[in-house]
Write a structure and sequence with these properties.
It is a single chain. The longest helix is centred in the N-terminal third of the chain and has 35 residues, at about 20-55. Helix 2 (about 60-80) runs antiparallel to helix 3 and helix 4 (about 115-135) packs antiparallel against helix 9 (about 210-225). The protein is mostly helical and about 240 residues long. It has one domain (about 5-225). Helix content is about 70%, strand content about 0%. The protein is built from 9 helices and no strands. The two termini are about 25 Å apart.
């Protein structure tokens, strides 16, 4: 799978810390904007999937509109705090506080086999924020330059093909139908496979340094963490 719900919040405000000198500066400015646009689009797509699943499960049109407003209020709440301007703990606390109502309302209206999803999304967001704070210097100094290679059409094509291969035809059809996977285990199997595509693309197209190797390893671990949570598959609580 591609970027997951709530991951876009990990990039909000990052551009405030990016210099604007020469080609490297331009790259540093482009990458956060591109990521933010992509993450926001993915977030909107996945919110629509949650709402569709709730409607399919009997949620009325009126309540669906209320749920959509709740998600919009959540994103507004997120945007009031900028990544790296707060301490890591304070930024994560803001994520948790802003998402309480949306998470709880989504969990109530989703079918039983999908109730795991809202809490998982929150845990994944928290894990990614931890990762980005811990690897902040690498993210801002080395990754933007490396990511210039991702603008090459052949590199993009190879990366997208890797994502499609990781999904498999069955999951592609499921996503096209607006479905949320029926279990955390099913989701993580595809999600972690797609995370390795980023790993492989960086290694194939960027000059590897010890810090980039650390970044890649930390990135994969951050995505693995909520998947390896020993809590029950449905995150019952």
């Amino acid at each position: 799978m591609k970027c997951l719900v709530l991951l876009f919040i990990c990039i909000i405000g990052a551009a405030a810390f990016i210099s604007n000198e020469g080609e490297k500066g331009k790259a540093r400015m482009r990458i956060p904007r591109q990521i933010l646009i992509g993450m926001t689009a993915r977030f909107t797509e996945l919110v629509n999937k949650v709402i569709k699943s709730c409607k399919d499960n009997g949620l009325s049109d009126e309540d669906s509109q209320k749920l959509e407003i709740t998600f919009k209020n959540m994103t507004t709440c997120f945007s009031k705090k900028q990544l790296f301007l707060l301490s890591k703990d304070d930024f994560i606390k803001n994520i948790v506080d802003c998402s309480v109502k949306a998470k709880d309302e989504a969990r109530k209206c989703l079918p039983d086999e999908q109730k795991w999803f809202p809490r998982f999304a929150l845990e994944l967001a928290k894990s990614m924020v931890n990762f980005m704070y811990d690897d902040q210097k690498i993210l801002q100094a080395e990754i933007p330059i490396c990511m210039i290679r991702f603008e090459d059409f052949d590199v993009q094509l190879s990366y997208m093909q890797c994502l499609l291969d990781a999904k498999g035809p069955q999951s592609i059809n499921q996503e096209d139908n607006g479905g949320i996977p029926q279990s955390k285990k099913e989701f993580c199997r595809k999600f972690l496979s797609s995370a390795l595509c980023f790993d492989q693309t960086l290694k194939a197209n960027c000059e590897m340094s010890p810090s980039l190797v650390k970044f890649i390893n930390d990135f994969v671990k951050a995505k693995e963490k909520p998947c390896n949570d020993e809590t029950e598959d449905n995150f019952s609580y």
